[in-house]
Amino acid sequence: MAEWLAARLRTVPGIRRVDVRPNGFLVIGVATPGEIVEDVLAAPVAVPPQPGASAAPWPDFPRTWDNPGFAVRYAYVRAGAVRRWARDLGVRTGAAARPELLDGPFDRAVLRVLAELPSRRESRDPGWAAYLERLAEAYHTAVERAAPIPRGDEPPSELHAARVRMGEAVRRVLGEGLVELGVAPPGKI
Q1: Is the peptide bond prior to 44 cis by the omega test (within 30 degrees of 0)?
Q2: Can you give the pLDDT at residue 11?
Q3: Is the Cβ–Cβ distance between 83 and 168 less than 8 Å?
Q4: 90 or 125, higher pLDDT
Q5: Phi/psi-derived region of residue 155, left when phi > 0, alpha when psi is between -120 and 50, beta in every other case
Q6: Nearest alpha-carbon partner for 166 in 111, 121, 128
Q7: Which of 9, 61, 82, 121 is least surrounded, with the fewest CB atoms within 10 Å of its CB?
Q8: For residue range 6-15, what is the model confidence (pLDDT) as tens digits?
């Protein structure tokens, strides 16, 4: 059955390869993983929390990296700050960003977590807290190791624009997850 399904998937546009593991799991490689960014940004915005919504599973304080609540909230704020800094530095963002440029290992780590979003939204128990923690960790690492804004005298590039656009998707997902947990996304930290 797995081989049959793999053969059908290989004919789908945008699929680069499909490998079948011995246990029957399929490993699907997409041609342009960065396209998930536009999919996330094109999705409808989350619904505001209902009265009686659950509280965050982690506290806001202490504000250290050991506290996942801080890391998630800071990733949300950081993605907004990156967008502002990029605008000030002349990085052109928006729909013109080229998702195919997001092929570095740190970009792909963020994209892998973002790609889980559709199944998270549809699950009865989406595990938002753990998902947001993984997304925040991947995003913080990407910002530190693969700069989304020019450094020093470096000119703005299309890669910077793609990374800023990815940060916009991260911010949207983190905001949606925080709302689902009954937490108002912070304006600043």
Answers
A1: no
A2: 85
A3: yes
A4: 90
A5: beta
A6: 111
A7: 61
A8: 888 888 877 7
